[in-house]
Amino acid sequence: MTAAPERLLDVAESVRTDLYTKPDLDAVAGIPVYVIADRKHNEVVVLSDPLNGEYRSRAVYRKGQTFTLPESIGAKVEMDVDSLLLT
C-alpha cells in the first residue's frame, strides 16, 4: 500500500528554486499538484499528474484568469491568478 503524501498542494514563490528544483522533489514525493506563482512573468504554472519523479501535465494561466485545480487534490478549488500574484 502506498502512503498518502503529506501535502496535496504546494504553492511556490521563488522562481529559481521552485521552478527548477522543487517540482522534481514534489513529484517524487507524490504531491499531486504543484502551483508556481511566477511574479517575474505574471503567470501561474500548475503542474500535476506526477509519475516517476516528473509532472506529466503543465498548464499556464495569466493575469485576469481563474482556474480550477486538478481533481487529484480531492476537492473543487477555484483560484484567481491576480490574487496569487499579489501575495
From TrEMBL:
What region holds the Putative restriction endonuclease domain? 16-81
Recorded GO MF terms = endonuclease activity
Protein name in UniProt? Uma2 family endonuclease
Key words, A-Z = Endonuclease, Hydrolase, Nuclease
Q: Which Pfam families match?
A: Uma2
Instruction: Classify the source by domain of life.
Output: Bacteria
Q: Which InterPro entries match?
A: Uma2 (IPR008538)
